[in-house]
Design goal:
Number of strands: 14
Strand order of the largest sheet: 3-2-4-5-7-6-12
Strand content: 15-25%
Number of helices: 15
Distance between the termini: 65 Å
Shape: globular
Order of helices and strands: HEHEHEHEHHEHEHEEHEEHEEHEHEHHH
Helix content: 25-40%
Structural class: alpha/beta
Radius of gyration: 21 Å
């Protein structure tokens, strides 16, 4: 086996400059955190010998031992409950839910105990638990294997919710999540596991301060696209395609849903005057609705048009052959941008059309 192949098998790059996948970056973050702190433990369904269904934990049980990385029974509520006890005993558990919808049986534990322990004990007991949840579509998964459940966790006070859209952020956000004294829901976009990037600067960093700080991935002047996780790539593609129509599009990657970076998002919208929110999850009562409300509350007088949302359909997740109809794509984003009011006399146009019985 070559040095590069051996390093890949171990989940660590042979060179810090080498391109790694997002799954490799997460593996590296777990390894570095476990090396830095003996209290960090990794467990879940098939994370040990198999290395996880997406091989994210490949080689960790072999290299750190079965006491630090181990398999559990197929009982998500039990996995989370066990993590609560371990965290109360001083450990830092990092647990995997394997697939997004598999976490639902554990939601009572997460909402009633993980999220509330600090408040319940008046700050005397912290639960530094990281719950890793592969989420989203784009892989042709069947029912219960593709879902966008971030709104459930974002709506639960006491939880921090983050999701990377880049390989470097996958490393940085996970390291920060493991170091955090509070419970963190770490949403991993399944369709991005095989994307590639460099983690050189992230590995070299001594501190991580990504929570609550969105990133402007692309500068623009006409409209702001706000996205997170797997939707950031769609937004970036749409921004490139929008050039043909003469639109200069800015893309903001939230990175952290909770805590939320109002400053970066609002400053972008105040500059462009228009905003479209992109998310894979169904639209009704989703994270995108919260973003739209926050933008309109804070930047109303800068807006030239209502904030629009491009989201998944309000249906149960469809079969694999139909998921392309459900997931927001570039064309739907461009259509939303086109529906923004680009005429300075939009109100006059609306009144004229309305008098003729037409739509604006």
């Amino acid at each position: 086996m070559t040095l590069t192949a051996a390093a890949h098998a171990a989940g660590a790059p042979a060179s810090a400059r080498q391109q790694v996948t997002m799954s490799g970056a997460i593996n590296r973050a777990l390894r570095d955190a476990m090396t830095a702190d003996a209290d960090v433990v990794v467990f879940g369904e098939d994370v040990g010998t198999l290395g996880g269904v997406f091989r994210v934990t490949d080689g960790i049980a072999r290299d750190f031992g079965q006491d630090r990385c181990f398999d559990t029974p197929l009982a998500e509520a039990g996995i989370v409950g066990f993590a609560v006890g371990m965290a109360m005993a001083g450990f830092r558990p990092v647990i995997e839910m394997q697939f997004d919808a598999f976490a639902f049986p554990a939601f009572e534990q997460i909402a009633s105990h993980v999220a509330k322990m600090r408040n319940r004990t008046a700050g005397r007991v912290n639960l530094p638990i990281v719950i890793r949840i592969p989420f989203g579509g784009g892989i042709g998964g069947v029912e219960h294997h593709c879902d966008s459940s971030e709104a459930y966790y974002a709506h639960t006070p006491g939880l921090k919710v983050v999701t990377p859209a880049t390989v470097e952020d996958a490393y940085t956000l996970l390291r920060e999540a493991i170091n955090d004294p509070d419970p963190v829901i770490f949403m991993e976009p399944k369709r991005l596991y095989w994307s590639k990037g460099s983690i050189e600067s992230a590995v070299a960093a001594t501190t991580f301060e990504s929570f609550g700080h969105a990133a402007v991935r692309r500068e623009g002047t006409d409209v702001t696209l706000v996205a997170y996780g797997p939707s950031v790539d769609v937004a970036m593609q749409a921004a490139s395609a929008a050039i043909e129509s003469g639109w200069s599009v800015e893309v903001v990657d939230l990175r952290s849903i909770v805590p939320f970076d109002d400053e970066t998002v609002v400053n972008s919208v105040r500059k462009t005057g228009r905003c479209v929110v992109v998310q894979e999850a169904q639209g009704f009562a989703g994270v995108g609705a919260e973003i739209a409300a926050r933008v309109q509350e804070r930047a109303f007088h800068s807006l030239h048009a209502p904030v629009l949302r491009v989201a998944g359909l309000d249906i149960p997740y469809p079969p694999p052959k139909l998921e392309h109809l459900h997931l927001p794509g570039v064309e739907r984003v461009l259509d939303a941008i086109a529906r923004l009011q680009w005429d300075d006399n939009a109100d006059t146009r609306f009144l004229a059309n309305a008098s003729k019985g037409g739509a604006a």
